[in-house]
Amino acid sequence: MTPRRLFTALALFLSGCAGAPQNYPSLAKRPIESAPVAAVTPPLAPAPADPALSAEIARYVAQADKGAAGFDAAAARADKAVQAAAGAAVSSDAWVAAQVAISALEAARNDSVSALASLDTLYVERSNAVAEGKARGGLEDIDAARSAALALVDQQNDRIDAMKARLPQP
Length: 170
Prior knowledge:
By secondary structure, this protein is an all-alpha fold. The protein has helices at residues 3-17, 31-34, 51-84, 93-108, 110-131, 139-166. The protein is 70% helix and 0% strand. Helix 3 packs antiparallel against helix 4, helix 3 runs antiparallel to helix 5 and helix 4 packs antiparallel against helix 6. The mean pLDDT is 88.
């Protein structure tokens, strides 16, 4: 590289540094950074559910349990039909009977799914009421019932999926 080109390039690079001075913010400590830190208040203990809410939760739990009992009875019938159709061809009488039994099994879980949906709705309504100051507590009770109903519905879905997997697919 010739000295003439080197000086030209150097002059070009340095001209970028020679701009107008900028006013950057100071890095000094601000007054708000020196203010004392407020003590964190511990969360309030969860308030128990009122009797009306407890009765409503119990009603939905009973509905989910009723759905589980109906599902278990239908699952036994569907399992037998699926075993009978295990080696059958698609659209054969045994295969169709197994599909019908699985459909009945899916319908038998409606009480459990409905109870879960009702508990979800109840949780949202209650959490809104608590946030607005119209109600106190009960969210933990609803959440525990929701978790149990969700586990029940998930288990039912897994059993249905396992039965469907054992049948030949079209």
